[in-house]
Amino acid sequence: MDASAPRTRIQEKNTAAILDAALDAFSQAGFRGATLDDISRAAGLSKPNLLYYFASKEAIYVQVLSGVLDLWLDPLKELTDDGDPIEEVVAYAQRKLEMAREYPRESRLFANEILQGAPRILDIIEGPLKQMVDEKAALIRGWTRAGRIADIDPYHLIFSIWSTTQHYADFDIQVRGILGPGNGHFEDAAAFLEHLYRSALTPR
What pTM did the predictor assign? Predict the structure, then answer.
């Protein structure tokens, strides 16, 4: 399909259906495990019709992953020097936890890509993502030097926030197996993580 040509409403609808079905398939089975047959069936389209919109499974995966990356980077961009440092970090952790609740498929897709060695996004990880994390680490170091937060390694602080929040999406079956069904554990997690990071960041 010519990407430069204007799309009709039905083309927009079919493209959205394909990407949503692909997100389901890739987040559950990974790139290797998902098939075009799976995606076309879930999207309610024939395989030839799907291939009219996307030339290959790789093309679909790259577009889905690109959307996930944009979504994933937004909360980190909002970590700024505008407010109280502890409030900024706690708010960042809460935004990441909310993403785990609202976008579990996207989280699992990203995790699957990383586990495969990040073949399609390594340049982004080593480029724009590293640059952004370096900038936020410098911001956190500035807060530490000014005595506004405890002396803490900024990189491992960010990694910790990623791991403690994304766990609730990537290991959802384990969380629910232990805590039971329902979403109440997100509220409990939010309260726990706020206490955890406030305690860790408050200067002694």
Answer: 0.87
